Amino acid sequence: MIPVSVDQLFLSNLGFVVLLKSTADGRTLPIFIGAAEAQSIALHVNEVKVPRPLTHDLLKNLLDFMECRLHRVEIVRIEEGTFYAALVLERDAGEVRLDCRPSDAISLALRAGAPLFVDDAVMAEAGRVPEATPDAQEQEGGSSHKIRPRLTPRELLEVQLKKAIKSERYEDAARLRDEIKHLEDTHTTN
User: Fold this and answer.
1) Mean pLDDT lowest for which of 14-28, 68-82, 120-134, 136-150?
2) Structure pTM?
3) Domain coordinates of the chain in residue numbers?
């Protein structure tokens, strides 16, 4: 297993992508995730406080209540472009593995402070070596890599809002508008 960390979260032309970076050799593993999971990860990474627990906060609270610890998260395989993950839990000195979507596993791992791992075969099949850009190499002595911009929680919400309006999901759009307003209000009071 290769230890990884969450390196970036961005919106590509195909959807949201979380980029896991190997702490061993710098390879990255891009995983496409849903908008809700991207929002959950972005809110946590950017330390945005929400008035009520999100689903991943609830899961973390439930694990704590049950005195169960998330020991680690493993991205265990890839089949036809779909990644599979496992939560490795510890309880009563025993280990339990649960099948999980990688996006949910990553969000929960961030909240629990649990390490992330990728199976060697998965990294070999889907991992990427970051592309060095000539401009960045000149500016930083040749050691920099192409970096894509990260989306802020507000930008993630705005993307979701536009999609909701476009697909005429007006109740969702109103909820997203309210979340954006809440973020603005929180930002102006801090």
Assistant:
1) 136-150
2) 0.68
3) 2-148, 152-190
